[in-house]
From TrEMBL:
This is histidine kinase. InterPro entries: CheY-like_superfamily, HATPase_C_sf, HATPase_dom, His_kinase_dom, HisK_dim/P_dom, HisK_dim/P_sf, PAC, PAS. PROSITE patterns: HIS_KIN (PS50109), PAC (PS50113), PAS (PS50112), RESPONSE_REGULATORY (PS50110). Residues 92-144, 219-271, 347-399, 476-528 form the PAC domain. The modification 4-aspartylphosphate is found at residue 864. It is an enzyme of class 2 (transferase). Residues 519-550 form a coiled coil. Its EC number is 2.7.13.3. Keywords: Coiled coil, Kinase, Phosphoprotein, Transferase. The keyword Magnesium does not apply. SMART domains: HATPase_c, HisKA, PAC, PAS, REC.
Amino acid sequence: MPPFKETETPHTPDSERVRRAMAAGVIVGTWSWDVARDRLHIDESLAHALGLDPALARGPVSPAQVTAAIHPDDQPGLEAAVAAAIRDGGRYVHQYRARGDDGQYRWLEAIGRVELDADGRAVAFPGVLLDIDERRRLEAERDQAQTLLRSFVEAMPGVVYAKDRQGRLLIGNRGTTELIGRPPDAYVGRTDAELLADPAQAAAVMVADARVMASGQAETLEEEVSFPDGRRATWLSTKAPLRDADGTVVGLVGTSLDITERKAAEQRHRETEERYRLAARATNDAIWDWRIVDGHVIWNEALAILFGHALAETSAQWWLDHIHPDDRARVDADIHAVIEGSGTTAWYGEYRFRRADGSYAAVLDRGTVLRDGDGRPVRMIGAMFDLTERKQAEAALAEREERLRLATDAGDMGFWDVDLVNDLLIWPPRTKAMFGISAHVPVSMRDFYEGLHPDDREATSAAFAAAIDPLQRALYDVEYRTVGKEDGIVRWVAAKGRGLFEAGACVRVVGVVIDITARKAAQARLQELNERLEGRVAEEVAERLKVEEALRQSQKMEAVGQLTGGIAHDFNNMLAAVIGPLDLLAARMGDDDARARRYVDMAIDGARRAALLTQRLLAFSRQQPLQPVALDANRLVAGMSDLLVHSLGSSVRLETVLGAGLWWTHADANQLENVILNLAVNARDAMPGGGRLTVETANCHLDHRYAAEQVGVPEGQYVMIAVTDTGTGMPPEVIAKAFDPFFTTKQVGRGTGLGLSQVYGFVKQSAGHVKIYSELGQGTTVKVYLPRLLRPPVPATGDAAAPLPLPLGDAGEVVLVVDDEPSVREFSRHALTELGYRVLEADGAEAALRLLDAHPEVTLLFTDVVMPEVNGRQLADRARERRPDLKVLFTTGYTRNAVVHNGVLDPGVHLIGKPFTVEDLAQRVRAVLDETPVR
């Protein structure tokens, strides 16, 4: 039935609806079938629609008359549909084709209703017939279009789909079904979040879809997807907005292609390219890739490394231009012959290639032509190897071979080659000469064996047999004698060789031979020399032991010197606190009390002898402050004659032998006099019955050999002073200990044991050398060597100055006394006060600096050198930073400090040694204060 029109109401009669539908052309006829009586009535419209006689509309017709117009193919279906409707009752709808008045079949749709009675039997079957031919045509066209679309979608590779604005799937192809893993009816109308098992994948897809629909722009993107079976893939998706007729975006359409394999192939391609790149970088060759069509060439990094061209791409002409002009035409012709030919694809050549710095490298170049399917050359890939080093090596090898040949010629070396397979012996003329055979005479192995000395034949044959034995393969290395076949001369030769093996058998033995006759003779002579050398070695060992003993003695003396120096320092400080006050006491007493004066003089004498003892200790330890001057030893010895005569006594006769033209030396005159006096006194004591003492001077040169025998004695020119006596002499064990401190052979109370120790210390401190020569019953000689002064001084003129009275100071001159020893500081303060000076005192550097700042009138700093924390020299330096014109006088009982170096006072330094008397102090203070400052 047709739908209601606006003018219809629900109460409009059915007949009226039918009439209006027929007027509109929707219903083409009606029927009414009285099933119970089998009476079928049709109207004229239906008769026309079925191509029947309109007259049939005036009376009942049989169903067979009506169905005769139905298309034969549709009649079975019609009959079945009618039978089912009569059986079941209710609404009836069926479509079929019927032939109209024009003889053409048209599609019709019959709509009716079967009414049943109370017993369920059909009693009435009315209905209408609708013309649906146009609708069926449109539906057919639609179905065809849908089929075509469905076939197109199904035929497209990958996934094809459409979605609405909410992301619900409207359609999907086979790829969509495979991806989701469900049939279409299970996923159409549902979103990706509901369908996909991977939530992250679903969220990413929906975000991309929403972005496309929001922007209205198509996108192409890669998406990672997971299949239900666990496979993962990469899809290349193209998504575009879906619009309605008005252009409004109502969804989207998309296609996705599986590019997993393509991505893998691209990755493999990249890996292949990376391997090629790494291989090109790893090789030392310059790899090139030449595109022949346009001459473009790509190089690896070796082009820059090997040849200095920092280029990655060039033209083929650039490469050709860098070939040496003399090689260019040849290389160009050779490579084009391979490219343009068809017989081979490989090319190689050697030529000279210009580096970036303009020099040429020798290269070996190899390349392979790649052709297309038609055989046309498209690319050529190759590698250029730098032969420069190899060429240089070959040249060096050739040079070495030439040198080897010349060396073997010069060394009289011969070669030999034994061919065991063909029983041949190859000897050059030099080898034949070693067996006494002329150069032109042929030789064989028989000549070799017959030429061996009978005593060496067995060992030589055994060595050769071991060399050719496959199990041993020993090195043939023998020395033997030959007996000349032609001249009969016996010669010694040394032969070395090695066997060459093939298939487990020795086929050749090759080696060299050299004439060692002269060497054997030299060895014999050397054996004789070795026997002599053993005796010399024993002598050298004994001499070395002697030197080592001397070194140990020197080290012992040095250690003892350190000890005695420290002891002397403490003694000097104590004696300074004794001698000084006694001196002051004697001055105050005068001659009023003779007995007390005698006691004081006795104390002063004892203290001075103790001071002399400490001076000897300091002299031995080489720590006494020396004041060396240019010295004429002859004049000094001559001036001591009277002193020596009085010291020796009448039983000893003195002789002096002064060398002519004696060199000058540089030493402390007073200390040298003490040395000579000590030696003279020791000599006197060694001659208790009297004798002769000789003092001799001479120039002396200590050569390298002598200096090597004496530890610490440099070779050179010296002034020698020898003191010789005719006394009892000394045994070697006494000589070895003579310079040791406190060692003496005298009776108890007759000697301190420091006399020779003082001599030793002074000489060593003066860079000299002292040596004792003595035999029991033959006397003793002590020789003192002092270094020569190469520049003698200019002789001074004028008379010596007369002695001055004791100098005094005045109250305007202020002396700052600094000493950490309270007793010495106290004596210094009293002595200087007695001498007329104003005195300030301090026990250390910090207190002294504060007094200097508070008393700018201080004119002299009188300071001890050895003090804790800040020594006297450091104090003087800091004081002169404040007072550049301040004068300084140092005092010390020990010279291993900052004002004395190598036993000699530093220039411009004034020093008074401890202990000192009031007279010594007065003289030194006055001298320092009266000195004109030097700027």
